[in-house]
Write a structure and sequence with these properties.
Elements: H1 6-21, H2 27-46, H3 50-69, H4 73-109, H5 128-143, H6 153-161, H7 174-182, H8 189-222, H9 229-260, H10 278-284, H11 287-298, H12 308-326, H13 330-348, H14 368-389, H15 393-403, H16 417-436, H17 452-468
Length: 481
């Protein structure tokens, strides 16, 4: 069930009405409704994988109780690693088994040993990387005595499977979401309206920006040899905004939907393409994943408070893990490695926290130095995205070779240049709106202080844009992760 589908447009109001007008007498009945709705939402993708979600939820729930009750450190550690091992085992089987089997076979063949590993022909359960990380953070937090184990199985199940975040995040923490699930919630009109604004903004980014950019990016990446360098630069640009509009659009819809039910989810994007260096970019892009790896991998390894060679090691570990988290392909690992290389000079010179404030916070426009920094960071990010999008490492280098060929100075040879110009215009409009609203969690929030006539005019314009400039519907990119 896609957020931008007719089915979801029916599903959401039904759950909303039942939640506030039928099951609003008791918190437990509201949570049961959310759980049933979430399982139905997930079953619409593939009901056969519901057992995996249920098993993972039950495993972490009971493991958490065992860890909390255990008196002996060895027993606590046993239940911790049992949960981690089984969770990562399922993730490894469904997502990474074929990758390791094929690459091991290729390695053995270099030594004259021919092997024919049995490969698994199974689809990847949607959202498995997200709900697995929900459970892992919960178990680790209990083991570290940051939180108490949740006693209500229903409440814990809602934390893991809350439908707005179930299939593509953000990756929530029990310390943030569980207290909200356990607390009585009252309908707040202003919060609900704010949620609708965020949903509208997310739909605009997904349907108008991402889906239009996808058609043009696919044309370039599928046939890079048929296009000149300037067209390939445009293709990389379109993918850069496709993945941003697609994933940040999903996150906005998820956060806005949660607000309709009185729940606040973690912010996942903070205008990353206005970043002035790569470190700032990673503080603003997929924030829930970046902070997850920081808190549960980077800091336990010593973080930045270790000798230089260990800081280099730790940086490569988290960026390579981040790439590998996205999928079992060398292109994702290369993408992670490239970002690590980008990040290291800032870390080693202790400039990785130079830009932690909002760019041009008190000014209408950035300074020339800020504009230069934003431009360089954006170009570096766009080049890295080529590896993320390419089908193979070889394809990525072929694409980059074309980008930096002499034909870059020629007119882009794109079929339907008019579509490309429209897409560029829509991107420019989105960036202008985001720049104006960069001080807020999402740009449409700042129209609350304007007149009702102005607000409704803006809503109507965005709705018209969604219907008039909707691209060919595309599945959300992060559903594959």
């Amino acid at each position: 069930m896609l957020f931008n589908s007719f089915a979801f447009a029916i599903f959401l109001p039904i759950v909303f009405i039942l939640y506030w007008f039928v099951f609003n007498k008791k918190l437990r009945t509201q949570n049961i409704l959310l759980l049933v709705a979430s399982y139905f939402f997930y079953a619409c993708w593939d009901w056969r994988f519901l057992f995996l979600l249920l098993f993972s939820t039950a495993l972490d729930y009971f493991s958490g109780l065992k860890i909390e009750k255990a008196a002996r450190p060895a027993t606590r550690k046993f239940w911790l690693w049992l949960s981690i091992g089984i969770n990562l085992g399922f993730l490894g089987i469904f997502k990474y088994y074929n990758f390791f089997a094929e690459n091991m076979s290729a390695l053995l063949s270099q030594f004259g040993l021919n092997s024919h590993p049995a490969l698994i022909q199974v689809i990847l359960p949607v959202g498995i990387s997200f709900y697995t990380f929900h459970g892992l953070s919960y178990i680790i937090d209990i083991y570290q005595r940051r939180i108490d184990a949740e006693k209500s199985f229903v409440d814990y199940s809602v934390f893991v499977s809350f439908f707005p975040l179930l299939v593509a995040g953000p990756i929530e923490r029990a310390t943030h979401l569980l207290p909200q699930i356990k607390r009585k919630r009252s309908f707040d009109y202003a919060t609900a309206v704010d949620g609708c604004r965020q949903i509208l903004w997310g739909l605009f980014k997904k349907v108008v920006i991402a889906d239009n950019c996808a058609e043009l990016a696919n044309e370039m990446f599928n046939y890079p040899g048929a296009h000149n360098g300037s067209a390939l630069w445009l293709g990389a640009l379109f993918f850069t905004f496709q993945i941003y509009g697609d994933f940040s659009g999903y996150s906005d819809i998820a956060l806005g939907t949660a607000k309709l039910f009185g729940i606040d989810l973690l912010r996942n994007f903070a205008y990353p393409y206005f970043s002035r260096d790569i470190a700032e970019f990673w503080r603003r892009w997929h924030i829930s994943l970046s902070s997850w790896f920081r808190d549960y991998v980077y800091i336990p390894l010593g973080g930045s408070k270790v000798p230089a060679w260990k800081r280099i090691r730790n940086t490569f570990i988290i960026f390579l893990l981040s790439g590998f988290w996205h999928g079992a392909q060398w292109t994702f690992i290369a993408w992670g490695a490239i970002n690590a290389i980008y990040f290291l000079p800032l870390l080693l010179t202790k400039r990785n926290r130079s830009n932690i404030d909002i760019v041009a916070a008190d000014k209408a426009l950035p300074s020339l130095r800020e504009l230069w920094s934003i431009g360089i960071t954006f170009i570096l990010t766009m080049i890295a995205w080529v590896f993320f999008r390419a089908e193979s490492i070889g394809s990525a280098f072929k694409y980059l070779k074309g980008m930096f060929s002499s034909s870059v100075f020629q007119k882009p040879d794109i079929d339907g240049m008019g579509r490309a110009c429209i897409a560029l215009g829509l991107i420019a409009i989105m960036l202008l709106i985001e720049w104006q609203g960069r001080r807020d969690p999402f740009p449409l929030r700042n129209i609350r202080q304007r007149s009702y006539a102005f607000q409704y005019a803006v809503y109507i314009l965005f709705i018209l844009a969604i219907f008039l400039w909707a691209g060919t519907p595309q599945q959300f990119i992060y559903f594959q992760f």
